[in-house]
């Protein structure tokens, strides 16, 4: 019994002494092993798989209706279409076309019969290309259970407005609120200033035409 | 003994819930990070309201910009960033690739689209442009613009090539040549208003700088020679600034 214990102890000591030696040997042995070519080289090739059928929805298109206040010509119903492409969660580009039928100036009303513009010249049609920034992303809470993603965005664009028989270079500055009713359907409230120079009433002047619209767009 | 072995095989063979989902659809991935963060909306500001543990699988539903909507085993849906999803694996063990921008895309992109605004001999210019990168230093490009001036309006369409001197720099100069068509419609208040369409050629110099891994800002000067039907050709200058998206 006593002998057995001593053998066990000795073999344990021998093992303990041998282990560090083996550990020291190991790096050298590994280096030697890497020098000799392996018969079978493990070749792990990681394939990259693009998930099929993942719908990318960066386009947004829809219609809007509202009012536009055409300087000197009163406020009219404005309607049109817009299409946007979302580059990142912050930045998007958008193209807008819209039209309205301008009213009459106070002068035309007071003078009785004098018409400044023909019917076709009274058509106020504008288009622009703009860059937008989702400045204030957030959520809109409906009741206690529903939270809809939303964003307040600012846009700066340039385009053209056809009015009074002429095309005018137009700068469009806007701010809007987008609320996602579902994953693909968005509701917009959008206010813009369509500013352009015109000499329609004599002197050349910068006109500001404020447009407020309600829009529905779909992401696709 | 045999019965115990049979039970063990049956136990091992019974798929766990995660494995069941993994076999579910083609757009399914298995989480490799300690956990996957699900946000309530497609943006970094939306709160994380749910996490999916490592080893569980989620189904990919739709993608918007850099955010992917996923559904986990319990049916919980949320938005995950592309970068975090790239650290997942398919049920077959393959890496998941979700194309997106990286610093390499500055040099390796193939396409550019942009919004152009500027001045053409006193007239405002508003338009759109597109370019294809044949090589990192050579661009084939085309643009269309409307010109709106005090005395005339019109359209300008051009196509040409541009050489980037150092696309690896943050800001690089470039030079370009090309040709196109200029349509001019003088305003009716002028004498002898006559619409005309002329061919034109240009040489230009510019600077472009990367804003991010997706956007660059480009400023360009072009001198146009308009081949008019009159005795003399006309030389006009154009200055533009473009906001360009590349992919």
How would you describe this protein?
The complex is a heterodimer of chains A (220) and B (247). Chain A is an alpha+beta fold. Chain A has one domain: Porin, CATH 2.40.160.20. Chain A is built from two helices and ten strands, in the order αβββββαβββββ. Chain A has helices spanning 2-35, 106-111; strands at residues 48-49, 55-56, 59-69, 75-86, 91-101, 123-142, 146-163, 166-180, 185-198, 205-219. An eight-stranded antiparallel beta barrel of chain A has the order 3-4-5-6-7-8-9-10. The radius of gyration of chain A is 36 Å and the shape is elongated. Chain A starts with a helix and ends with a strand. Residues 20-33 of chain A have low confidence and may be disordered. Chain B has 247 residues and is mostly beta strands. Chain B folds into two domains: 15-85, Roll (SH3 type barrels), CATH 2.30.30; 105-246, Porin. Helices cover 11% and strands 56% of the residues of chain B. Chain B is built from four helices and 15 strands. Chain B has an eight-stranded antiparallel β-barrel with strand order 8-9-10-11-12-13-14-15. A four-stranded antiparallel beta sheet of chain B has the order 1-4-5-6. Chain B has a two-stranded antiparallel ribbon with strand order 2-3. The longest helix of chain B has 12 residues, at 2-13. Mean pLDDT of chain B is 83; it is low at 8-24. Classes of the chains: A alpha+beta (220), B mainly beta (247). At the A-B interface, strand 1, strand 2, strand 6, strand 7 and strand 8 of A face strand 4, strand 5, strand 7 and strand 9 of B. Strand 1 of chain A pairs parallel with strand 7 of chain B, so a sheet runs across the interface.
């Amino acid at each position: 019994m006593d002998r057995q214990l001593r053998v066990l102890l000795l073999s344990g000591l021998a093992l303990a002494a041998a282990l560090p030696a083996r550990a020291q040997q190991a790096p050298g042995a590994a280096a030697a092993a890497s020098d000799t070519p392996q018969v079978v080289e493990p070749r792990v090739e990681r394939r990259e798989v693009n998930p099929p059928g993942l719908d990318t929805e960066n386009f947004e298109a829809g219609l809007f209706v509202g009012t536009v206040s055409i300087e000197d010509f009163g406020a009219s119903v404005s309607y049109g279409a817009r299409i946007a492409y979302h580059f990142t969660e912050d930045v998007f580009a958008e193209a807008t076309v819209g039209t309205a039928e301008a009213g009459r100036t106070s002068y035309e009303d007071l003078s009785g019969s004098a018409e400044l513009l023909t019917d076709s010249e009274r058509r106020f049609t504008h288009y622009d290309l703009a860059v937008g920034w989702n400045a204030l992303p957030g959520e809109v809470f409906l009741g206690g259970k529903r939270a809809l993603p939303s964003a307040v965005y600012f846009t700066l664009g340039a385009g053209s407005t056809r009015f009074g028989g002429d095309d005018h270079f137009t700068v469009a500055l806007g701010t809007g609120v987008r609320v996602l009713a579902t994953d693909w359907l968005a509701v917009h409230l959008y206010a813009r200033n369509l500013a352009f120079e015109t000499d329609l009433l004599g002197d050349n002047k910068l006109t500001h035409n404020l447009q407020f619209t309600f829009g529905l767009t779909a992401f696709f | 003994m045999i019965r115990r072995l049979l039970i063990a095989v049956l136990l091992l063979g019974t798929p766990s819930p995660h494995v069941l989902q993994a076999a579910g659809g083609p757009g399914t991935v298995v989480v490799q990070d300690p956990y996957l963060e699900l946000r309530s909306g497609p943006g970094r500001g939306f709160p994380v309201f749910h996490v999916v543990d490592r080893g569980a699988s989620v189904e990919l539903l739709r993608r918007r910009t850099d955010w992917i909507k996923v559904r986990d085993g319990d049916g919980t849906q949320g938005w995950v960033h592309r970068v975090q999803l790239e650290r997942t694996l398919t049920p077959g063990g393959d890496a998941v690739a979700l194309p997106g921008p990286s610093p390499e895309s500055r040099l390796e992109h193939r396409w550019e689209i942009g919004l152009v605004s500027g001045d053409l001999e006193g007239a405002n210019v508003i338009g759109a442009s597109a370019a294809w990168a044949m090589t990192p230093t050579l661009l084939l490009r085309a643009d269309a613009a409307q010109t709106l001036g005090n005395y005339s309006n019109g359209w300008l369409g051009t196509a040409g090539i541009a050489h980037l001197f150092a696309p690896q720099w943050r800001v690089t100069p470039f030079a370009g040549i090309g040709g196109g068509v200029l349509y001019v419609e003088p305003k009716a208040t002028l004498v002898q208003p006559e619409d005309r369409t002329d061919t034109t050629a240009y040489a230009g110099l510019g600077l472009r700088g990367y804003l991010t891994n997706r956007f660059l800002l480009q400023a360009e000067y072009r001198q146009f020679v308009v081949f008019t039907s009159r005795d003399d050709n006309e030389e006009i200058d154009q200055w533009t600034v473009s906001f360009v998206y590349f992919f």
